[in-house]
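User: Just a sanity check before I run the rest of the batch. Below are the structure tokens for the first item. I only need the designed sequence back.
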């Protein structure tokens, strides 16, 4: 028979430790977010639907994005046991220079649309954590202002080739003058993809005031207040624009560009050149032969051609074809630290994340981006330790099996 007794206060006290009260609502939200998926849920609550959908959505039926995420979800990680993993080193290299973590911040357009702190917040987080940040041609903070916000960050400038080549030359000159380390040429946007969520939401830059947006404003007053009381939302590299994103891309971008035009690019930019948007082994060879210092396997986060190749699936073949001549990076679908580790194991030199940090930005500004890095860093370290490796160089194809 069980003997019962009243507990003493000294026995109860350790069990009754209240959780510290957080008066700061942003701090509370971010502390409760344990994954990027948690940050996504917060972002969805805190931003207007058209803004969230612009970030979250992809092209047409969004098959490409779902396939990329499904591959990361369904792959098998293969641990090796009985190794000393008391210290895990996450350092890797981009363009021959060390990065504290094996992921960097991909270029994203319209970043101040997601949160008024925008690109300045993102680059400051990159600086603190010792990872690279790529500023988009379609950014909403100028090349010079981003450089001033984080003078010690590793900064790259992402370029779309415009029909007005002189404008592109001017942007490259400004980036070089401001101390940007590398140029990232995005090559998968000869025309705009069909982003149906944006079309259905009437998404435009700047936001158009319709009955729908006015109603949405009532549901997201903080977002609208920040938009209306800070510097006007506009493209930093354009004088002005009013219209849809697709209209803008089709008006500005040059669909006639070919591999031969890289010679024009090299005449204006003598630093490291990254080619982003490669989706076949054959194209990886072509841009490597043309002098790319790094190749990013990417389908633009599924935002251009629906049913395009999944970069992770393509990765081993590209590494085998050109990995001895150029760095091979990968993006699209990365939402967890184990995704980063799997890509490294399959041969990627490094990875880029985009939506992940934008969810953090929408959830809590600069602190939200910082929370994204904390989450991914913790997941990378834990996954490496559980796989039995203590540095990035020890990861290999023996640690992952694709379905």
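Assistant: Here's the designed sequence for the first item:
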């Amino acid at each position: 028979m069980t003997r019962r007794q009243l507990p003493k206060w000294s026995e109860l006290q350790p069990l009754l430790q209240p959780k510290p009260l957080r008066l700061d609502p942003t701090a509370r939200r971010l502390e409760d977010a344990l994954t990027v998926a948690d940050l996504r849920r917060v972002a969805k609550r805190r931003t207007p639907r058209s803004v969230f959908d612009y970030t979250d959505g992809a092209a047409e039926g969004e098959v490409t994005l779902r396939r990329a995420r499904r591959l990361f979800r369904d792959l098998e990680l293969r641990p090796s046991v009985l190794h000393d993993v008391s210290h895990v080193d996450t350092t890797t290299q981009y363009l021959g220079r060390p990065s504290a973590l094996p992921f960097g911040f991909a270029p994203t357009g319209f970043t101040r649309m997601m949160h008024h702190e925008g690109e300045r917040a993102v680059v400051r987080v990159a600086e603190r954590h010792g990872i690279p940040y790529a500023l988009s041609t379609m950014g909403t903070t100028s090349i010079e202002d981003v450089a001033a916000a984080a003078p010690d960050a590793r900064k790259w400038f992402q370029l779309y080739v415009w029909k007005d080549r002189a404008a592109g030359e001017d942007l490259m000159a400004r980036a070089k003058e401001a101390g940007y380390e590398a140029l990232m040429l995005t090559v998968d946007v000869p025309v705009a993809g069909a982003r149906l969520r944006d079309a259905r939401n009437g998404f435009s830059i700047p936001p158009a005031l319709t009955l729908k947006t006015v109603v949405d404003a009532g549901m997201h007053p903080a977002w609208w207040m920040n938009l209306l009381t800070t510097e006007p939302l506009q493209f930093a590299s354009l004088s002005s624009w009013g219209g849809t994103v697709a209209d803008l891309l089709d008006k500005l971008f040059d669909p006639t560009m070919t591999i031969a035009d890289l010679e024009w690019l090299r005449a204006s930019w003598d630093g490291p050149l990254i080619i982003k948007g490669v989706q076949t082994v054959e194209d990886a060879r072509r841009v490597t032969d043309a002098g790319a210092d790094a190749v990013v396997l990417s389908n633009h986060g599924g935002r251009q051609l629906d049913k395009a190749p999944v970069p992770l699936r393509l990765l081993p073949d590209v590494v085998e074809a050109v990995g001895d001549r150029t760095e091979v990076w990968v993006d699209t679908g990365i939402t967890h630290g184990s995704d980063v580790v799997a890509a490294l194991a399959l041969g990627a030199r490094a990875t880029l994340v985009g939506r992940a940090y934008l969810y953090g930005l929408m959830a809590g500004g600069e602190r939200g981006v910082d929370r994204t890095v904390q989450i991914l860093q913790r997941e990378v370290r834990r996954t490496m330790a559980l796989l039995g490796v203590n540095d990035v160089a020890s990861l290999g194809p023996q640690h992952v099996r694709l379905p």
